[in-house]
Amino acid sequence: MSLSAHLLALPQWVAIFLLLAIAVFFSISGFLVVHRFIPAEVRRIHNDVAGFVFATLGTTYGVLLAFVVLVVWEQFNDAKANVEKESSVAMVLYKNVVAYPDQAASRTMEESLLKYIHQAVDERHLISVEPAASRAVTALNQLLTLLDGIVPDSGHEQILYTQILQNLNELSKYHNLRHQATHEELPSVVWIGVLAGAIIVIGFTFLFGTENFWAHIVMMSLLAALIAIVIYVVIEMDHPTMGSVTIGFPEGYSRILEMAEAKAKP
Q1: H or E segment at 260?
Q2: CA-to-CA distance for 74 and 65, rounded, in angstroms?
Q3: Whole-angstrom Cα distance, residue 81 to residue 62?
Q4: Cα dist. 227→5, 20, 233, 254 in Å?
């Protein structure tokens, strides 16, 4: 499990407070070290040049953060849309299976589909920890194998069979995309840029000289806190099945189980 995953395993307020504490502690402790060895009077001489350089650094880092946030936000929305499509396709597949004219084949397909759904529901809490989808994938593959052995006897059966096969292929596609989104993370080089940029931007504020010591500390702490919050947003969006903001689980699976249970009642 990555460091980000460990962070998201904590309550949201604890994770945010932890990041804020680290960022603010770094800004204050670093400033105190610089202030001890380089007096404010000396640093104040270079404020004009430092301000110009800091503006360039801040703009560059702001663009980097905005780019990263945009990427993870788009990925999160895509993953959420795929979950909704998976839910919709599963519902359509179940209705087509139940409506299949050959009752024996319909019952066999329904049992196999319900077996997959049960496995997927049982493994929903394991997805965010490890790629433990083998039983659900196995059940899905068994349903595909079962379809290969069914031969439609009429034109109506052929139409439904084609629709069922198409729905099943789409279900497998969106299932795989959901698991792929679960285990994908930002490349390490992006995190190096984000974290190194945060250290450089915050560290550069140590070089300014101000007349008010405490005002300098407050300004640096606010900047560090803002960066920490944005980094938390990136971490949250980068893990769509963990933390407080998630893409959820296909609601269609629960509805199918309810429909199957109601159907089984006399």
Answers
A1: helix 251-264
A2: 14
A3: 28
A4: 19, 9, 10, 40
Distance, C-alpha 185 to centroid of its chain:
8
**Kindly report the CA angle at 168 between 250 and 76, in degrees rounded to 5?**
35
Other beta carbons within 10 Å of 205: 21
Tokens for 46, please give them.
């270079």
For the segment 81-108, the average pLDDT, to the nearest whole number, is: 93
- The answer to pTM > 0.90 is no
Task: Look up residue 73 and give its two tokens.
Answer: 């936000």
Mean pLDDT of the chain, nearest integer: 89
DSSP letter string, 197-238 = HHHHHHHHGGG---S-HHHHHHHHHHHHHHHHHHHHHHHHHH
Long-range contacts of 120-124 (CB under 8 A, 24+ apart): 120/175, 120/250, 120/253, 121/249, 121/253, 121/254, 121/257, 124/249
Number of neighbouring beta carbons within 10 Å of residue 228: 23
Q: Measured between alpha carbons, how far is 118 from 53 in angstroms, rounded to an integer?
A: 59
Alpha-carbon separation of residue 204 from 52, 109, 166, 210 (angstroms): 12, 65, 58, 14
The dihedral through the CA atoms of 193, 196, 202, 208 has a sign that is negative
CB 208 within 8 Å of CB 43: yes
Task: Kindly state the percentage of the chain with pLDDT values over 90.
Answer: 59
